[in-house]
Every structure is written in C-alpha cells, then in structure tokens.
Amino acid sequence: MGCVSKYGLFIINSCVIFLGVTVVGVSAAILQQDSIFGVLLTQVFYSVPLSALIGGLFVTFLGVLGCWGAAKEDTCALKTYASIVGVLMVMVVTAGVLLMVFTTGSTAYIISSMKVIFNEYGGADEDLTYDLDFLQHNTHCCGIQGYEDWADFIYGNSTNVADGCCKNQTEGCGVGLLQDPQVKELVYTAGCLSFLTDALSGFCIALGVVTLVLASIQMLSISWACIIIRDSSRYAPL
C-alpha cells in the first residue's frame, strides 16, 4: 500500500474533522445567541445556521470514517467513505447551483417574510418588537424598502413608525410621525431590505467559495481512497 496515499488521506480527513467541528461550534453559537439580525435571523434565516450545523456534524462523521479507514487500512470503511463522499460531492455541486439561483431570486422571499414579521410589531411578542427596534435603530434603517412601509403595517396604521426608526429613540417616539411634516428629519428613511440583501449576498459568495474548495477536497479524497482500496486488494493475501 502506498504510504503517501494512506497518510495523505489521513491528513485530509483530519483537516475535515477540524472543519466540521468548527462549523458545528460556530453554527451552535449563532443559534443560541442574539445578533443584530435578532428575530429576522431566527424566523427568516433560521434554516441557514441550522443547515450548517447538520452539515458540520455530517462532515465530522465523514472525516472520522476516512481517518479510520486510512489508519486501519479497512477497505470496507474506505469503500463506504468513497461512496458517501461521491454522493455528497454531487449534493455540493447541486447546492452550489441552487445557491446561485437563490441569490438572484431571494429578494421576493425576503420581502414576503419581512412583511409577516413587521406586521407582528407592537403585538404580544415583546421580544420581536425589541429585536425589530434594535435592528432598525442600529442599522439606521426603517421599514422594508423605506420608512413609508410602516403605513401599511398593522402597528403603523398610516400614522406610526416603529420606535427603532427614530433617530432619537425613546418609548413611543414613533407614534404619529408619518403625519409629521418633519418626518424625514426625525426618522431613518432608508429601508432595511438593502442591509439584509447585502449581508446575504456576501454570505452566499463565501458559501460559493467554500463549495468549490469542498468539492475539490472531495475529489482528492475519493481518488486517494480508491488508490488505497486498489493497493489493498492487490497485496491482500490469497
């Protein structure tokens, strides 16, 4: 058996384990703590860190399986590993294509989801109200595409904006501001949609790069695993 192939596969999968554990840790941290996205993260983008968490666990498992097969020269484990990684590589390429499609067509989905959440502002869910105020005030945005959007939301009722829209935020500061002639000087006028789509765009680009790197590593892993399997069969005792 070629030592280069054996230890090369072992090193690659050690790196894969480290990557998987890192993804699991970061994803779990995102799911467990508040962020500037607040309720939008948990209700609109919740599937992103959750999918990353599941993917990280799966990648970690594959890394352990690959290390075990390489260290023990276990052809059964390596065949299983090569088969799973082959399927995973197809899934990664498919995910990359879907990611690009989602990047170009995600605006309508984001707007629809944001409308549902903004319409719950000022209701029974105090955490949601706090998170929307926090998001708008700290990112200097108001509404989805502009502060006028609040006229169409339940809380706005053609009169009010969220307190988080106020440049000088105090409790109840947004009441009646839509009818104030000086409204543009008192509230942030830009919508929050551009902030979210810019953040999502950067995230998608990063995922695209990771996808290409992962696909390359997977191709290399499959090649090395097949070489080890071939050499094991060649030198196996009769």
Write the layout of secondary structure elements.
Elements: H1 3-32, H2 39-43, H3 47-72, H4 75-105, H5 107-118, H6 126-139, H7 183-186, H8 193-234
Helix pairs in contact: 1-3, 1-8, 3-4, 4-8
Short structural description:
This protein is an all-alpha fold and 238 residues long.
How many strands, which pairing sense, and closed or not: the largest β-sheet? none
Model regions low in confidence, pLDDT < 50 over at least 5 residues: none
Please give the share of residues in helix: 55-70%
| SS content category | mainly alpha
As a whole number of angstroms, the C-alpha radius of gyration is 25 Å
Strand content: under 5%
Per DSSP, the total helix count is 8
Q: Separation of termini?
A: 16 Å
Order of helices and strands: HHHHHHHH
Q: What is the residue-averaged pLDDT? A: 74
Coarse shape: rod-shaped
Number of strands: 0
Give a written overview of the molecule.
This protein is mainly α and 238 residues long. It is 69% helix and 0% strand. It is built from eight helices and no strands. The chain has helices at 3-32, 39-43, 47-72, 75-105, 107-118, 126-139, 183-186, 193-234. Helix 1 packs antiparallel against helix 3 (47-72), helix 1 packs antiparallel against helix 8 and helix 4 runs antiparallel to helix 8 (193-234). The radius of gyration is 25 Å and the shape is rod-shaped.
